[in-house]
Amino acid sequence: MRDDSRRRGNRSDRSERPGHGAPRAVVIGAGIGGLTAAVALHLRGWRVTVLERARSLEPVGAGISLAPNALRALDVIGLGDEIRALAAWQGDGGLRTPAGRWLSRTDAQAVAARFGGPLVLLHRATLLERLAARLPEGTVRTASEATLADPGDPGPLAVAADGDASRSPGGAGAGRAPAPPGLAPADTAPVEPPSPRPRTARVSTPEGELEAELVVAADGIHSRVRGVLFPDHPGPAYAGFTAWRMVLPAPVSSFAPHETWGRGLLWGTQPMKDGTVYAYAAAAVPAGGRAPDDERAELLRLFGAWHQPIPALLDAVRPDQVLRGDVHHIAEPLPAHHRGRVALLGDAAHAMPPTLGQGGNQAIEDAVVLAHHADPAAHAPDLAAYTRDRRPRTTAIARKAVASGRMIMLRAAPAVVLRDTAIAVLSKAVPSLMLRGFDDVAGWRPPQAPYASPASPARDRTDRAR
Length: 466
Ligand SMILES: Cc1cc2nc3c(=O)[nH]c(=O)nc-3n(C[C@H](O)[C@H](O)[C@H](O)COP(=O)(O)OP(=O)(O)OC[C@H]3O[C@@H](n4cnc5c(N)ncnc54)[C@H](O)[C@@H]3O)c2cc1C
Known about the structure:
By secondary structure, the protein is of the alpha/beta class. The chain has two domains: 1-89 and 113-236 and 331-466, FAD/NAD(P)-binding domain (3-Layer(bba) Sandwich), CATH 3.50.50.60; 238-329, D-Amino Acid Oxidase, Chain A, domain 2 (2-Layer Sandwich). It is 29% helix and 20% strand. It has a seven-stranded mixed β-sheet. A hairpin with a 5-residue loop joins strand 4 and strand 5 (102-107). The two termini are 43 Å apart. The relative contact order is 0.18. Bound molecules: flavin-adenine dinucleotide. Flavin-adenine dinucleotide is lined by residues 28-34, 51-54, 61, 64-65, 145-146, 218-220, 224, 243, 245, 327, 346-348, 354, 357-361, 363.
C-alpha cells in the first residue's frame, strides 16, 4: 500500500496521531473535501484514516478558486492565511462580450473590501499538498478503494453529549434554522428508528475491514456510498454543458482577468501566483461529445475569433494540455447528508455546476462544520445537526449555480442581447451589483474558532462574530 502523505508536504507541520482512546474516523476520498475533513477531525482529537482509490494525490482539474467563505473555513484548521498569500489578482477585471466590450467591471480591492478578503485562484495540487502536509504520517492510504460495509448506528442519545435529546437523530430539533422555501426541512427526511444499541460503522478496503465511530463519505460526484445510503436517489444529472480547463504560460501582453459570455459559450482567463494562467471554457452542447480531431482545435473553432488574450492563449496551448469533461450535478437534493454514522460531504452530497465556483468551497465548509459537530468526547458525531446546518445552505447555493448556468448558457440571440444590456445598464447604475449577488455566499462564517494546535482539542464557540 502506498502512503502518499509520507512523501508530501512539510513534515514540521505534521503532528502525532491521537492516542488509542480517541474515537476513529475513516474518510473515503482524498479530494478537497475529504482532506479538509481529515485535518479538521484530526485537530479535534479524532484518530483519522483517509482511503483514496487513486495511486497518488495528483488531482485532475488544473485550478480552483477559493472565495472568502472557504478561506474562513480554512482559518479553522490554520491554513487560511497560507492560501490567501497565493492571491494573484491585482487591479481590474470583469465580464466581457466576445468582441471585448466590458459589461461590468470590478477590481480586486473592491472584492476584498466587500467580503473581508481576496478571491484566490490556485493549483488544485497545491491545495491538496498543503492539506495532506497537516496530517500525521500514515494517515492517507492511496490505492485503497473503499466500500461501505455497514453505516453503523450512533445509538439513541449518544450524539447528545450535553444531554440535549432534541439533537439526537429523529429528535425534536429545537432551535434549528428554517428551511428555504420549497425545501423540506432535513428532519422530515427518512431517519432510522433509534436503535437501543450503538454500533460502529465498517468500511472494507483491499487490506481488510476498518471499524469507525464516524465515516466521512467524500467520494465525489459519483459517490458509491451515496448510492448505498440513498438507493432511491436518482444520482447526478448532466448540467447541460461541457467544460475545458488548462494551465498555460502567461500571454506576452498583460491582460485583465475576465469572464466572457457568448451565446451558449463561456471563456475565463485568470492569473495565478506562479505566473501561469488558468483558462476555462464551457459550451452548451449535448453530453458525451468529443472533438473529431483534438480539443484545442475545437476551442479554436468556438473561441478563436473572440477578444484577446483568448486567441493568444489558444496559440500557446498544446492539445494534450486541454482537459475536457461534461459537467454533472445533483439536481435533486438528498433527503439528508447523513445516515447512521456516515456523513456525506462535498460533491458526494451536493455536487453543483461550477458557475459560481463554489463546489469545492462548499466541500471545505462542510468539512469544518462536520468537525464542529463531532465532539470526540461523545464518541458519536451529531450528524443530524450537521445535516441541519449544511443542507439548506448547500441546496440554496446549488440552485443559484443552476440558475446562473441557465443565464450564462443562453443561446437565443434576443435573449443574449437582453441579458447583456441588462447587465451593462444595471452595473453602471449600481457598480457593486455583481458582487452584491455573492454576499450570502462569500459572507459565511464557520461556527467555531480556529483549532489552536494539534495537541489541544478544539474549544468550539457558538458565537459567529469573529
Ligand atoms: C469545470 C469545473 C470547474 C470547477 N471550478 C471550481 C472552482 O473554481 N471552485 C470551486 O470551489 N469548485 C469548483 N469546481 C467544483 C469542485 O471541483 C468540486 O466541487 C470539488 O472537487 C469536490 O471535492 P470533493 O472532495 O467533494 O470530491 P472530489 O474532488 O471528486 O474527490 C473525491 C475523491 O474520492 C476518491 N474516491 C472516489 N471513490 C472512492 C472509493 N470508493 N474509495 C476511495 N476513494 C474514492 C476519488 O478518487 C477522489 O480523489 C469545479 C468543477 C468543475 C467540473
